[in-house]
Design a protein that fits this description.
There is one protein chain. By secondary structure, the chain is an alpha/beta fold. It has 5 domains: about 200 residues, Rossmann fold; about 210 residues, 3-Layer(aba) Sandwich (Rossmann fold); about 60 residues; about 60 residues, Roll (SH3 type barrels); about 200 residues, no CATH class. The chain contains 27 helices and 32 strands. The strands form 7 sheets. The protein has a 7-stranded mixed beta sheet, sandwiched between helices. Strands 6-7-5-8-9-4-10 form a 7-stranded parallel beta sheet, sandwiched between helices. The longest helix is centred in the first third of the chain and has 20 residues.
């Protein structure tokens, strides 16, 4: 289904620009002459017989010329002059087109490539409108609100806005308003700032509940900028969609109807996704007119080692160790690089290994590599960002906290340690290099994992496929209910509001009344409690108050970890890394949300193990797959961390296991599951002795492959396999969303089940190992120590199951495609 509102015809004058002119849409240094070509850098990395064989594929994306345009004549000449003073003589065609839509009062999404100047596309009309409003004879001038998914991106954008708007005097008054903003500055921002940069969390918890104090700002709100809008997916995106509906409701109360300006370098059907996020019609600008330098993209598979893993499986060298080596080599060559790493611990470990190896070459080089991740204190993050901007740092090992738009100008290479979960994120990370139009190198280093192994040997799955659709469900009752309460606390809810919040809201209100959260008086629903209604919704799904990590001897706060991750990452005995230092967790107090640590240097890392059980609450859809069944519905998952393993650093050898006593946690969510019958087991030659291992292996591999078919990460989903499940009375494999109420991933799995499970079977069958390994059926997060597993049984089981799969796509309960599929 496509958006009903077609883009208006905007035809700016365009002409081609040769790459040599290096026209810039961002303020980026142009010292490209001494930079080696990306192919040359890759040749140096792959030099030597042992390394050259690790490259399984190299993709060359050719350079592209740019197409200029002219700014709409309604843009203030002072703004155009400021842009030209920044070194940008003419806009790209897509920038002018987006500005035209914004000035026409149409919400617009700019969905062009990384470093295509999307910031300027929305900033120019915003600055022009703020300048117009500053000349209003009475009252406050026009205002604009900027939303970023991370604090770092908002702070980075504020720096860029201040530089660009400096010639405009006091008309713009940009300011960051987030959890790090000093309280003495907040009142000034509320009263006087023209361009407020914040994040959805602060909008949800700080601005909307205090809307009377923001009345003059909201009354004058002309634009809402939503940067990196593709990140608003799953449960987080669903929450943000409802936060934006609350914002629109309050703006209407103050007489404003802001235009939404959205930007994303990686979005499928961007207008459809933007409309679902904002609730308003959105025009799409997706024809990228900016120039692009050559991109060399290599797929890299670490070699097998002599080590043996669980059950004697062959083990590849870790992506962490391989990435640390490559980052070291790039730093020695003077190539400015970022290594993106999946976990906070991985980022720390890569930086430590690279620093140690660089110190052996030149001690001064070791200081030019660092780690960057979430959980750092604000002043630590800001210092690292400044060092990266200045060029003081040559190499950085970073989590996705640095993925989103932060201006890391001048990078030559990007290392990606493990597939990041989606093609959208892969291209977002790869696009951080080559931002001034020069050539760039990107290297995806495969982890010992089914999906990574599949991708480095099937490059067409990365380079011949579009990015994924954004999956979000604002009608999820676990998401909608707390936002209805928050909205009622901001202004009593009336019947007319229900259309804004979606069709599910009418059914939820009686339940909220019965729970004594809302009370109906005459024609409106009111919040009835003393506590803050906004605290009911945890929009990032992090499961409560973050756990503070405190050094036991000094009382110094080192950082924080999300509550949902505390059981697995800061349990008693866990190894915790922070800025290159190693700590051991001495105690975890869940009541006070504090983990006490002390500095140590153990020769091992720790990995938590857990147990999981699942029960079916309701089956929404059930379709036959031969004698078997494919189902989708609601489940309750009970999980408990029961122990942790100590693994030797680098090799991963297991040194021992320690029991833990942590409370179980329950999760009500959505799942897809499939069953097989006795006849199908006979056909697959599966006897009772290998049944559990076959199911378990199929479960692991299917979880590993699902990110290829749904906009998710394997850590967003979980699975359970049971030889005889009490609810189905059959052998059953479940794959479920790891978020309360579901995130849309299991539903996407249900609708792509035939392709998803076919790819799963192929990934297992094509692996060269004999009995199963991390590249096919072993899981890095298995709570049972990858026992039992049976590789050949899984292949035969999936073969028989897929013979019964229907050709047509499964439909919803009423025979129609669901909203997600549409």
């Amino acid at each position: 289904m496509h958006d009903a509102l077609a883009p208006l015809s905007v035809t700016p004058v365009t002409h081609s620009v040769p790459m040599a002119k290096n026209h810039r849409s961002d303020r980026i240094p142009t010292d490209t002459a001494s930079r080696p070509a990306p192919g040359t850098v890759l040749d140096r990395l792959a030099s030597g017989p042992s390394r050259s064989s690790r490259i399984t594929h190299t993709e060359h994306l050719p350079p592209r010329a740019g197409r200029h345009a002219v700014w709409p004549d309604r843009i203030r000449p002072e703004v155009i002059a400021a842009v030209q003073a920044a070194g940008i003589e003419h806009p790209w065609a897509h920038q002018a087109q987006a500005a035209e839509h914004a000035l026409d009062g149409e919400s617009v999404v700019v969905a062009t490539g990384t470093a295509s100047g999307k910031s300027l596309a929305y900033l120019v009309p915003v600055l022009s409108t703020l300048l117009d409003g500053s000349e209003a004879p009475n009252g406050r001038g026009a205002t604009a609100l900027y939303l970023a998914p991370t604090k770092a991106l908002a702070a980075d954008q504020c720096r860029a806005v201040k530089e660009l708007s400096h010639p405009l005097g006091q008309a713009v008054r940009p300011a960051v308003y987030d959890g790090d903003t000093p309280f003495e500055e907040r009142e000034w921002i509320r009263q006087y700032a023209g361009y407020v940069l914040t994040n959805p969390d602060m909008l949800h918890r700080g601005i909307l509940p205090s809307h009377p104090r923001w009345a003059s700002f909201l009354k004058s709100l002309k634009y809402v900028v939503i940067d990196e809008c593709h990140t608003y997916r799953g449960v987080f995106g669903s929450h943000v969609a409802q936060v934006l509906r609350r914002l629109r409701r309050l703006c209407a109360r103050y007489g404003a109807s802001p235009v939404f300006l959205l930007a994303s370098a990686t979005a499928a059907e961007p207008a459809v996704a933007a409309r679902r996020l904002t609730g308003v019609p959105v025009v799409e600008v997706a024809d990228d007119a900016s120039p692009r330098g050559e991109l060399v993209f290599a797929l890299w598979e670490p070699p097998l080692t002599e080590m043996q893993g669980e059950k004697g499986a062959p083990v590849r060298r870790t992506a962490t160790a391989e990435t640390a080596d490559l980052l070291t080599d790039l730093t020695v060559q003077g190539v400015r690089s970022v290594a993106f790493v999946r976990s906070r611990r991985g980022a720390e470990l890569i930086s430590v290994i690279a620093q140690e190896r660089l110190a052996e070459v030149d001690r001064s080089l070791a200081r030019r590599v660092a780690a960057y991740r979430g959980g750092y204190l604000p002043e630590e993050r800001r210092a690292l960002e400044r060092a990266l901007h200045s060029g003081e740092l040559l190499g950085l090992a970073a989590t996705t906290a640095l993925e989103l738009g932060v201006d890391v100008s001048g990078l030559d290479a990007v290392l990606i340690a493990g597939y990041p979960g989606t093609r959208a994120s892969l291209w977002q990370q790869a696009g951080r290099a080559g931002r001034s139009g020069q050539g760039a190198l990107a290297v995806l280093i495969a982890r010992d994992d089914p999906l990574d192994t599949f991708l480095v040997h099937h490059p067409e799955a990365l380079f011949d496929q579009p990015v994924e659709s954004t999956v979000l469900d604002p009608d999820n009752p676990y998401v909608l209910a707390p936002h209805l309460c928050a909205a009622a606390a901001e202004l009593p809810l009336v019947e007319e509001d229900l259309e804004l919040f979606g069709p599910a809201s009418a059914d939820l209100l009686p339940q909220l009344e019965a729970a004594k959260l809302l009370r109906r008086r005459t024609k409106a629903w009111h919040w009835t409690r003393r506590e803050r209604a906004a605290d009911l919704a945890d929009i990032r799904g992090e499961g409560g108050q973050p756990v503070q990590i405190v050094e036991e001897g000094t009382g110094r706060l080192l950082g924080t970890v999300d509550a949902g991750a505390a059981h697995t990452t800061v349990h008693e005995g866990a190894v915790h890394l922070h800025q290159g230092r190693t700590y051991l967790v001495r105690s975890l107090d869940l009541d006070d949300s504090v983990a006490l640590v002390e500095e140590a240097n153990p020769p091992y890392s720790t990995v938590a193990r857990d147990t999981t059980s699942i029960s079916v609450l309701e089956t929404d859809v059930e379709i036959p797959w031969g004698d078997g069944r494919l189902c989708y519905g609601s489940v309750e998952v009970t999980n408990q961390v029961v122990s942790f393993l100590r693994r030797r650093l680098i090799t991963g050898e297991v040194l021992g296991e320690t029991k833990l006593d942590l409370p179980p946690r329950t999760l009500r969510t959505r799942a897809v599951w499939w069953t097989v019958t006795e006849d199908q087991l006979d056909e697959a030659r599966i006897n009772p002795e290998i049944l559990g291992g076959a199911l378990h292996a199929a479960e692991h591999a299917s979880i590993g492959m699902l990110p290829l078919f749904a906009t998710c990460d394997r850590w967003d989903i979980g699975g359970v396999s049971v030889p005889l499940h009490p609810d189905t009375l059959l052998p059953t494999v479940f794959v479920y969303d790891g978020h309360p109420g579901g995130a849309g991933f299991a539903e996407r799995a249900f609708h792509t089940a035939r392709d998803w499970l076919t790819a799963t079977r192929e990934a297992i069958a094509s692996c060269e190992c004999d009995a199963g390994c991390p590249s096919c059926i072993q899981s890095p997060k298995c709570g049972n120590g990858n026992d039992p597993l049976h590789k050949r049984g899984a292949i035969r089981l999936l073969t028989v199951l897929l013979r019964g799969a229907p050709e047509e796509k499964p439909t919803g309960a009423e025979g129609e495609p669901t909203e997600l599929e549409a």
